[in-house]
Design goal:
The protein is an all-alpha fold and 253 residues long. The protein is 69% helix and 2% strand. Strand 1 and strand 2 form a beta hairpin.
């Protein structure tokens, strides 16, 4: 008696893995993916306005933005626990949703879930080697931009009113973030607050990962191109040999 094949799902890297989700969890994610992508955009926009607006968080429009972010945050927490309840394998669920779990405790990591939700969409999941590599490059570039943008906002919020701060505006913060994540580190601007230095540590660690992933992807791409050219060269040489052999076998008049 043949065993029933286990359901599979393609992960963000384009690799087929066993789908451990329950039918109810699959149905829930199917209907919540697009709404939560929209809410992630709203959260990122609200977070940006909240930080870039120099008013106190409890004054002016900021208090309404803060309330909106709080409501969205609660909705994401509810979504996490609903999916946890619907899941059949809690251990794998925890491993598969680490960013969700972290974002419940650290709200400014919430925008990174936007990339995770995008990876659920079918048209983000090709299976060919070239499409997988292109997707990895797109994810790496998107994550790097998101990482710089979100952490530069966080550092700016921590540093702008600190005594002896060298990061005085958001432009300074972006410049500092770029030179930090690329491991250049001119030292012209440094965070002076404890929170700013924690964010700087996260940025440096993220820079090492992003540079490593990008380097590996480029090497993989060049290796595949070399192999493709070598294969075509061999096929062309074999074709020429077959042609010459055919000509030699023809009777001469």
């Amino acid at each position: 008696m043949e065993s029933t094949p286990k359901p599979v799902i393609m992960n963000a890297a384009g690799v087929l893995v066993e789908d451990t989700r329950s039918p109810k969890e699959i149905k829930w994610e199917k209907f919540t993916t697009l709404p939560f992508i929209f809410l992630s955009f709203i959260f990122l926009l609200g977070y940006s306005v909240l930080i870039l607006n120099d008013e106190v968080f409890t004054q002016g429009i900021d208090k309404y933005i803060l309330l909106t972010l709080g409501v969205i945050w609660i909705m994401f927490i509810i979504d996490y626990f609903v999916r946890l309840t619907l899941s059949t394998n809690k251990r794998i669920f925890f491993k598969r949703n680490v960013i969700d779990l972290i974002s419940m405790a650290i709200p400014f990591t919430r925008p990174f879930l936007l990339l995770m939700y995008l990876s659920r969409l079918r048209w983000f999941r090709g299976r060919q080697g070239s499409s997988v590599r292109a997707r990895l490059v797109a994810y790496a570039a998107s994550f790097a931009l998101m990482y710089i943008y979100v952490l530069s906002l966080a550092v700016y919020a921590a540093e702008r009113n600190a005594a002896g701060a060298t990061i005085l505006n958001y432009g300074d913060s972006v410049w500092w973030a770029i030179e930090t994540i690329t491991t250049v580190g001119y030292g012209d601007m440094i965070p002076v607050t404890i929170a700013g230095r924690v964010y700087a540590s996260l940025l440096m660690l993220g820079g090492v990962v992003i540079v490593g992933a990008t380097t590996a992807t480029v090497i993989s791409y060049l290796s595949e191109k070399v192999q493709t050219v070598h294969k075509k060269s061999q096929e062309h040489a074999a074709h020429l040999n077959d042609t010459h052999k055919h000509d030699d076998d023809q009777p001469h008049s």
